[in-house]
Amino acid sequence: MGTVESSRDVMTEVQQVDVWFEPSSQSTTDPQMLGVLGRLVTVSCLLEAFRNQPSKTEVRNCLLKLLSVQGEFLRQLRRDEESVTENELPRLWILTTSASEALLDSFGAKLELDNWPSGVYFLADALRTAIIAINQLPITEETLWLRLLGKGKTQENAINELIALPQDNPLRRNALEQIAIWRVNIQLNQNSTQDDRELLMTLSPAYLEWREATFQEGKLTGKQEGTLEERGSFITDLLKVRFGVLDDALSGIIPRLLELPREEVVRMILQLSREDLLARFSQ
User: Fold this and answer.
1) DSSP-assigned beta bridge partners for residue 93
2) Better-predicted residue by pLDDT, 21 or 268
3) Higher pLDDT, 241 or 8
4) What's the CA angle centered on 138, arms 134 and 142, to 5 degrees?
5) Mean of the pLDDT values across residues 144-166?
6) Residue 33, SS3 per DSSP
7) I need a labelling partner for 145 at 20 to 30 A (CA). Which of 39, 56, 82, 261 fits?
8) Helix ranges, 167-220 (H)
């Protein structure tokens, strides 16, 4: 009736996980600060993010990555002669801007509204996997850090909420800086799509807010320029945010930038292109 092959080798290609997170036992950060996102990372986990709804094949590929990571995790425990409970195995969180009812039904994904907000759909318990439809999350500060990865109005509203947070919110500045890096990387992409251009516009308010805050930070009074090490670290971070990467050419102009007032450095890095900056300060 067909071909039978015993002891067939199963070859799997090397795949990369979008984000692998492993919590530290030494961390003093309260996960509740991150709301729902903080709940996702209480155990080791894979985070797979999709700008558009994933296909069934893409979801299965994510599951394949999870099973591979779990296998590696268990083999290491056996080598160390340690044991683990089912609840300590790595989890998979698939973050998608939207998820249709047909896709969710095809994987038997269900809500658990007694413990989780709407938009978080869990597959069968043994799979340790959930699909998070970001556009279905309730609009609360608890979900803000996930909704920033949404699309269209969902993301636009989340960015406005981020900007409206108090200036002393410990997460606000970091989030604005990451969005600034994201926007700069899109802007530098030579092969941008219509979706990229729309995203550029969506991220612009957060980028402008970060840029204004950075300008203000550069306006130190009197001679409060900080130590040479602090100024070098500031310039390094600013170059990374503006250009996405700090290569040898950019590193080479840092000593020249250290000779200038901080406010002037901030203005030039944010306004000049990479080529103009190197042409002005390279020897």
Assistant:
1) 47, 130
2) 21
3) 8
4) 90
5) 95
6) helix
7) 56
8) 172-188, 194-218
